[in-house]
Amino acid sequence: MKFRRLDVRFFRSFNYDYELKSRIKNQPAPWEDVDPAWYPFVRIPLDPEITAIVGANESGKSQLLTAIKAALTGNPIDRSDFCRYSELYSVKTNELRLPEFGCTFELDPAENRAGINALEGATEFSFYRPGAGDPFLLVNGEKTPLGADELERLEAALPSYHELRTDLAIPNSVSIAELAGQPHRQLHLRKTRTDILEQLGSLVPLTAEAAGAAVLPALTEGTDPASVEAEVKRKAEFELARQLLIDAAGIDRRAFTELQEAIRSGREGQVEAIIGAMNSAIKENLNVQRWWSQDRDFELLVEAREHELAFTILDRTGSKYSFGERSQGLRFFLSYFVQLTAHRLTNGKPDILLLDEPDAFLSSVGQQDLLRVLHDYALPEDDGQQSQVVYVTHSPFLIDKNAPHRIRVLDKGSEDEGTRVVRDAANNRYEPLRSSIGTNLAETTFIGGKNLFVEGPGDQILLAGISADIAKREQSTSGVLDLNEVTVVACGGADSIPYMAYLARGRDVIKPPCVALLDGDKSGLIAENVLRRGEARRKRVLRDEYIIRLDTWAAQSGLKVDDGVGVLEIEDLLPIDIAHRAALNYLARFEDLQDQDTESFTAEEIRKNLLETGGRLWDAVEKAYTSAFPEEHIEKAGLAREVILLLAVSPNVQGAKELRGRFAALLGFLAERLDDASAEEDRNRSDDRMKRAVNNFLRNHPQGMRKHEAKKLMRELESALDASPVGDAIRPQLSSIARDFELGDLSTNNVPRFDSFREAIKALSSSERILYQDDATTDPASSVIQATPVEAPAPSRKKK
After folding, report:
1. Does the model's pTM come out above 0.70?
2. How far apart are CA 766 and CA 761, in angstroms?
3. CATH node for 2-159
4. Which candidate, 228, 308, 42, 9, places its Cα nearest to that of 129?
5. Is the C or the N end of the chain the one with fewer CB within 10 Å?
6. pLDDT one-digit tens code per residue, 32-70
7. DSSP-derived secondary structure letter, 10
8. Does 205 sit behind a cis peptide bond, omega within 30 degrees of 0 on the bond before it?
9. How many CB atoms lie under 10 A from the CB of residue 320?
10. What dihedral do alpha carbons 66, 68, 72, 73 form, nearest 10°?
């Protein structure tokens, strides 16, 4: 059973749907309440898998989550939640109303109908809670009241919801005794024990009466509000730790009793064995490393510390940290991951997962990791139960760019209009989504790990839009661009691509993988030549295999396009029928088609124009368009946008199959090239010979070094430098170090002033980064421009 739509009215900021009511042709359905007037429900369609709710502050995002709970369970439906600015808000007799909710569900043929006759044979139904009125079903437009027994059976059959705690992090440590099932005591807390010992140690003289006065208050739980709140938080954190260790990692509760007894008896070997087995269980059953991309080598460990089990992190450097020493991001990511894992293991049926702003403590990369976890919860790889996910966010990094159809934008209308649903947010190039979260998702440059440079916005729209369309149909990003990892960068023309590539890769040590897609026209050929000869100070920023010219690719791939079309630019991949229909839709955005002579603008006319335009589809479309509509103008980006909208509205329109097939071939090729570029960068970073040599030196020679070993080190560093401006800049530094520390003078064995020598060698590992950073603050042209003499000021004239 899938929750497909939420209907809500008169609930908090949700008043009613003004837009639906204001359209003259819209009329209430026979079952709708029209007393005292028609107030349509605000309808929020939900994706069967994942729904992202975004919007500005106070737009009603979090209230929507509460409305989902009310629709499913009937709680909360309270008079205090009635929309305060609704014209139906009243305190008069017989005019007191309650908020109203409805939900629409999609049924599988074999699904449980809860023994309700009205649902037999139904594939979809709606269920309404009309405030103080009796609940009812709506099946095929027919309204069926529900008795108390039927309502109880229906509610039991509806999906349940699970609310993720987004304000709860993994604790630093937990009591071993409490994990073993013993009641919580204040002495279980390390802070309590430490405070008691400090107070007892300060007592002079140490008497029974003084000791009791010092110890008893510490053993008693406080009843003040702050203490009560702290205890509630501690219980929640303990439950989260219990879920991690027992539910998710599968550790038997009795193991904590054994650990407690081993610690008490001083059997250190047994303690280490138990802890080692627990860590193995955590690693085997949670596999957090798969999802936390910021450090694939990190390990979540537990350590026995007195009476506590402490959580620690072993990172890729081999260093251990307590949770208090790491960023909040990892703690909260682990919290979300553990909650989901434990719930999935203990929950018996598909449900609806609700999250309210889980991005608060996570970095942009951490949010992308969480997005993958949520996707696996909704569509598990192991063919497990498929649940729905509904989450509220302000962050662009928690928006799945491969699935814009999952976005729901809420907006607060003016005056008493209340919360409304922006119905075309994703289709309108993410507006007004940009104003809601402060960025434009499709055009945020260099935030991705991989970048695809294209010439213009039309290329960007077609590649991103058709990639998302194919991913939606195939339920996978395999073979297309993963838009959560790849940023499609519109450079504003072919001549700008070399410089944009240089900005991305030529000015820093960490170089993101990049691929350039160029047209096969004259400007594309010029840009290709610039990239191939490497104008950025004799240094190539892109290798040949990452410079893709569209015409070359099309010829090598054997791609079939419409007769008369030769592939030079991305529009040439469009089927003529699609391009014709999209162009008409573009015109319809500005003019009434009934007032235009559309019969003179035909697909056949476009085909005829191909002979005059050298096989250029865009030129043929533009020529036919301006000929048929002399006062109109069409843009590439506008045509591209209409193509994407057409696929969304009419997925099987004539030419759609050919369109997807052609772009799937190109997208798959580009995705492979981007993967290759990414793998190459990973190898380059792991093969950084200079950094490895410096790190080995620092590790192996903490106190001193023989001069002959130092000379060997200098040769190793010299061989690590390539023929580049950076290498040319570092070589003199090596010579200077050898001279300053007298490495050629073998009359003494050891390197003098070794601490300074270590610092000089250590600084070499940062030289490349510093050089690039300094380069961004220089004015290179100043060396070739002669300074213009400053004219002397004219002599002042004294008044006579």
Report:
1. yes
2. 10
3. 3.40.50
4. 9
5. C
6. 988 889 999 999 999 999 999 998 888 899 999 999 999
7. S
8. yes
9. 13
10. 0
